[in-house]
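Weekly modeling sync, notes
Attendees: S.R. (lead), two postdocs, one rotation student

Agenda item 3: backlog of single-chain predictions. S.R. asked that every request posted to the team notebook include the full sequence so nobody has to chase files. The rotation student volunteered to paste the first one in as an example of the format we agreed on. Action items at the bottom.

Example entry:
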Amino acid sequence: MSDSRASVLISVGDLAARIAAKGSLVLLDVSDDLDTAPLERPVIPGAIAVSLASDLSGAATKLGGRRPLPDPAALQDNVRRWGISADTLVVVYDNASGAQAGRAWWTLRWAGHGNVRLLDGGLAAWKAAGQPLADQPVHATGNGSFKVSPGSMPTIEADDAARIAREGALLDARGKAAYEGEADKPATGHIPGAVCAPAAGAVGANGFFKSTEDLRAHFAALGADGKQPVGVYCGSGNSAAHELAAMYAAGIEAPLYVGSWSAWSADPARPVAKGSARG
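Predicted structure, as returned to the notebook:
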């Protein structure tokens, strides 16, 4: 495994070995919003259930988007409650093909924790490998000491995204239907100049991330070739963070437009493109 890939992903086998070794490990089972959709499924034994909405994001605002950056002090309280310290290996996973856990991976990296890994294949891969499951997540220990250092991952705002769309490759990580939008709904479509680049394109039919070589070729074909500025957005920053995890695994760094389409489309002064053309 390449250094860049190993710094982002962890396999089921390696996670099982780390759990058996009983080292400094915190395992986070990530959902989008536990208040509206309570966890009603098995988890990996020892996992703590966390919510992107309430634990890893700030309060939604019209111009800030649906999943804005969290308040650093509130995030620090959460990661310490989960038992995370500077030397803790943090492994995140979900049951949603990585879109939610990818955002958790990105947010913890943004907060300055470099030892975070995304479980390749997620809960589905863990189950397919015949690994054990638990009926309930565990309660957080509350004994962490990690100090949040915000800004450790690059971000962009709306004007930056517009500039990258004009001058480089702004990747839209949503699906094709969301990118193209609906003719009679003005709040649907994409940022003019953005490239349709669904996050699912980085994942193979088996549910695992594609090989490093295939990922590099995939993103180069989308314009992330190192020759022009690149940025990533989606609906509210979740799928985009998943796409960024794939890019970082391939050794490609790029910023996240955190507000993404939920913030862009809330501003009536922002232009909207429709259809399959970049616009």
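Discussion: group reviewed the output briefly. The longest strand covers residues 25-31.
Action items: rotation student to repeat for the remaining queue; S.R. to check formatting next week.
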